[in-house]
Amino acid sequence: MNVGKRALLTALAGLVLVAGALAPADAQPPIPIEDRLADVNGVRLHYLVTGKGDPVILLHGYAETSRMWRPLIGELAKTHTVIAPDLRGFDQSSKPDAGYDKKTMAQDVHALAVSLGSMRFRRMPRTSRNLRRSSSRCPCWC
Questions:
Q1: Which residues are 35's β-sheet partners?
Q2: Is-above-0.90 flag for pTM?
Q3: pLDDT-derived band at 60, boundaries 50, 70, 90
Q4: Do the strands 80-85 and 43-50 form a parallel or antiparallel pair, or are they unpaired?
């Protein structure tokens, strides 16, 4: 075996050993996230759902989708049922001609929550204190 191949194989073996040492011993497999659709308030909403426990609904901002929450969903799903809808007009949700005002989109989200059963929801205001607390754990908060 020539020196170049031996050096390459040695480097590759070292990389495999280092990667194995860096992996946490108690690493859990990722929590599966389901894609679902719901017909509510005259629109079809796509949403992600996973976990068990008190429900948390994560809403995306303008020009984003529910997928922006994927880095945070796994952590929240350990203790909560996490629901992340795509608002009307975004990603896989339907794109009606009207209803893009905040009131109508809030009614869409409320109708989705009601359609998911008798879950009780609590509103958490998006304050600068909450943003600071969350931003250190999730790169999604801008």
A1: 48
A2: no
A3: very high
A4: antiparallel
